[in-house]
């Protein structure tokens, strides 16, 4: 009997909510039943302040019944708390619980309707509750997608992560196909990347989580991407949104050897010669050892007004590594590395490691000491690297241990009136550094 009455109560409550949403208030803030409205608002609020949501619930319902729509945002916020309390209280009654969840969702929608200024927060919390309370996977996934479609670049990063997580889960259950997962990833990626540029505090970690979820989903194989998107690319090679998505997927999947990647990147660059498309072309040319074009495209990406200082730092560091590893051009490697450090101080440790490698690899002329002096400078930079970035300590110590073995012998230095602890200027390969003399005994 109690179960029947509970169900009837919920149905009556839902009917009251529906009536409530269409009532018009033409008689002041508290409506034509202002006495009942204010009385129930006051009474239920007293119980809420005491934390007694059980006693607050019936009085809150009366306030909802007598007060006009939009009387107070607090009415809906308290309604959310009361519904959650009742959901937990009735978790053993599946039918009643589901009805209460629907009422909770309606609270968020009413709050959004009458207080649109707070729509993002209300709808974000609504989706979080749907994820936690609804067992229907399709319903949950649709709610996540609707939130992203509604708020676009303003979508909370945690919603983007949950959406990717749910997509991966549904793909594992064979509820959605690989194309749906890749389409979602292509939608999410630019949103979170723009949030990183806007310095959203949660965006960087969200991107890592999203990329990891996509990587382990089993969808992101080069074979899958090519099979799904090559026919689409051939059909509409001038569809900028499609081509951008293909390039992003192939790049993230490290599918650089795929002919589709080359075709898509070249097509994208023709349609939209941005710094991103220039960067993708650099990747292609570097794989082909087309050094001239690789350097040209990467420098173009750095010089673009569209790229951020952080991106320019990343590209400058890549350029330095390219000059050192592929072109054996120490002077240009040093210049690009120092530019990366100036643009983004977080690259300091990495730059010092690279500069250490530059000095370790440079050819130096002169006597026995002058030829070996470069190792002093190299070790100096490896010491600086680990002091700037503790995560580099193990690698830096390994290089320090190796290159100390090449320091000149004490008797060799003595022959040239050079002693330990003295200042020494090293000039090699167009570079010049001051360092301290250290010898092997």
List keywords for this structure.
two-stranded antiparallel sheet; 441 residues; mainly alpha; 22 helices
What does this structure look like?
The termini are far apart. The chain has helices at residues 2-22, 34-50, 53-66, 73-89, 94-114, 119-133, 137-151, 157-172, 178-197, 203-216, 222-235, 240-252, 259-271, 275-287, 291-303, 309-325, 330-343, 348-361, 368-372, 374-388, 393-404, 410-415; strands at residues 423-428, 431-436. Strands 1-2 form a two-stranded antiparallel sheet. 72% of the residues lie in helices and 3% in strands. The model is unreliable at 1-5 and 17-26 (pLDDT under 50). The chain has 22 helices and two strands. The protein is an all-alpha fold and 441 residues long. Among the domains are: 1-134, no CATH class; 136-220, no CATH class; 363-441, no CATH class. β1 (423-428) and β2 (431-436) form a beta hairpin.
Compose a concise summary of this entry.
This protein has 441 residues and is mainly alpha-helical. Helix content is 72%, strand content 3%. Strands 1-2 form a two-stranded antiparallel sheet.
Topology of helices and strands:
Blueprint: H1 2-22, H2 34-50, H3 53-66, H4 73-89, H5 94-114, H6 119-133, H7 137-151, H8 157-172, H9 178-197, H10 203-216, H11 222-235, H12 240-252, H13 259-271, H14 275-287, H15 291-303, H16 309-325, H17 330-343, H18 348-361, H19 368-372, H20 374-388, H21 393-404, H22 410-415, E1 423-428, E2 431-436
Antiparallel strand pairs: 1-2
Helix pairs in contact: 1-3, 1-5, 2-3, 3-4, 4-5, 5-6, 6-7, 7-8, 8-9, 8-10, 9-10, 9-12, 11-12, 12-13, 13-14, 14-15, 15-16, 16-17, 17-18, 18-20, 20-21
């Amino acid at each position: 009997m109690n179960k029947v009455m509970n169900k009837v109560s919920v149905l009556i409550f839902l009917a009251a909510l529906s009536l409530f949403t269409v009532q018009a208030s033409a008689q002041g803030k508290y409506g034509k039943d202002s006495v009942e409205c204010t009385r129930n608002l006051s009474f239920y609020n007293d119980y809420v302040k005491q934390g007694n949501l059980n006693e607050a619930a019936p009085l809150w319902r009366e306030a909802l019944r007598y007060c006009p729509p939009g009387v107070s945002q607090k009415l809906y916020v308290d309604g959310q708390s009361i519904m959650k309390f009742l959901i937990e209280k009735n978790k053993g009654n599946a039918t009643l619980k589901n009805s209460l969840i629907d009422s909770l969702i309606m609270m968020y929608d009413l709050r959004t309707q009458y207080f649109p200024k707070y729509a993002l927060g209300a709808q974000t919390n609504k989706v979080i509750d749907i994820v936690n309370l609804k067992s229907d996977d399709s319903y949950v996934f649709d709610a996540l997608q609707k939130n992203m479609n509604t708020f676009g670049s303003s979508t909370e990063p945690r919603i983007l992560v949950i959406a990717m997580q749910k997509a991966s889960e549904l793909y594992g259950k064979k509820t959605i196909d690989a194309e749906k997962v890749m389409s979602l990833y292509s939608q999410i990626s630019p949103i979170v990347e723009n949030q990183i540029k806007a310095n959203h505090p949660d965006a960087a970690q969200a991107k890592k989580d999203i990329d990891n979820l996509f990587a382990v989903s089993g969808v992101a194989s080069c074979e899958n991407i090519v099979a799904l998107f090559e026919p689409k690319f051939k059909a509409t090679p001038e569809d900028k949104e499609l081509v951008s998505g293909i390039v992003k997927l192939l790049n993230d999947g490290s599918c650089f050897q795929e002919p589709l990647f080359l075709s898509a990147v070249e097509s994208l660059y023709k349609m939209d010669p941005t710094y991103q498309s220039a960067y993708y072309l650099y990747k292609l040319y570097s794989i082909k050892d087309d050094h001239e074009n690789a350097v040209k495209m990467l420098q173009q990406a750095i010089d673009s007004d569209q790229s951020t200082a952080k991106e320019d730092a990343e590209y400058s560091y890549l350029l330095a590594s390219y000059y050192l590893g592929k072109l054996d051009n120490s002077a240009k490697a040093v210049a690009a590395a120092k530019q990366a450090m100036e643009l983004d101080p977080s690259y300091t440790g990495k730059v010092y490691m690279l500069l250490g490698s530059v000095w370790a690899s440079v050819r130096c002329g002169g006597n026995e000491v002058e030829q070996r002096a470069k190792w002093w400078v190299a070790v100096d930079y490896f010491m600086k690297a680990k002091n700037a970035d503790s995560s580099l300590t193990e690698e830096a110590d390994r290089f320090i241990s190796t290159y100390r073995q090449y320091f000149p012998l004490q008797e060799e230095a003595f022959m040239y009136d050079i002693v330990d602890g003295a200042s020494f200027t090293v000039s090699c390969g167009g570079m010049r550094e001051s360092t301290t003399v250290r010898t092997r005994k």
